[in-house]
Amino acid sequence: MTPARLSRSTWPAPVRPARIVHVGIGNFSRAHQAWYTMRADATAGWGICAFTGRRPAVAEALAPQQGLYTLIERGPVDDRLTVVDVLSDVRPGADLDSLIAAVALPQTAVVTLTVTEAGYAPVVADPAASALGRLALALGERHRRGAQPVAIVSCDNLRANGLVLRTRMLELAETLDARLADWIANEVAFVSTSADRITPATTDADRALVAQELGLVDVAPVVCEPFSDWVLCGEFPAGRPDWERAGARFVDQIEPWEERKLWLLNGGHCLLAYLGLPRGHETVAEAVADPQLSSALERFLDLAQRHLPAGDLDLATYRRELRERFANARIGYPLKQIAADGLEKLRNRVVPVIEAALAGGDEAEPALRIVEAWARWLIGDPDRARSDQSGERLRAALRGSGRGEQASGLLELLAPGLAEAATTQHQGGDLEHRIG
Q: What pTM value is reported for the model?
């Protein structure tokens, strides 16, 4: 007999009042912010009203489950399963009316976002067509209703993500209503964060595991590593969950923490993806087990670490844990998943390392190799650019005649002047020639 579906009738759980609105619900946010909120919320007073990104699939899967899903923490040896009950409601991102209503509610104290790096691009058309544009419209309604200030928390892999988000929201607000822009500037708090947890795509085997272990069907479980880290910097004028109870850290300066994560974890992932895929590797664990790639990774991590800002970052422990995380073969993190949407990823994860090295007179070659490998990856198969969130700009760069011209276009799109600066300082020679 087929097991019953996971829901609040088959798995009794409190319905928490929705005081957080999340934009861009996906596997990572369910493995990270939702998990932290449930663990921190001993009184069941903080629920999340979540909205998907471009695709409604998560909302469609979780609606029959009334927001419940299983988190599978996958260690090197075994798994730990937890049913997460903190999602009070899950709706498609295109449901603009519901998003506006949820953000405008007086009880809403926090808005969190995971819309990927590409989601922060300046909006030049219809605001309703982008996640940030829809949020600006929702803040406009909150302002009109005279609701109290709110905190907006970016959890995406961007340097100074809270500041970037504030800039984008003010730009959008100016196009809608100057009074709204003034209100956002004076009353809305923007919180910067560094959010760290490897979360691969869910497989049918993961769904089968849940059915076996819980005796219930969950069509939308999430797999993640046991490691998690969350560092936040900013104010919460209307309150927040006690995330410290779940291990979150609040700091006065976010930059050292976010750069530690972006450069070492995410930059290391990019190296393994763009250098590992051409060598036939499919997962992070496979790539890091390759002696040649392992050596390249260590050289890149050494370079990045030399240029990290000062701070009590405990880098020796972080790098040791990073090696253990990468080697966790049971996670099976696909390199193709990392390689997707590479333009914005490299701008935040690798280009800053190159720029810091060049500025300091250091040898940037270990980081330049990642950029070269990315360009070769795209030039080798134009279809890869087509599926990138920045596909239109990438395709324009790839229209050049010959690999050298295509390489030049990609490098100029990634970071204007980077190739010239690297060549001028004799950092590995002429990049376009090497790629072409």
A: 0.89
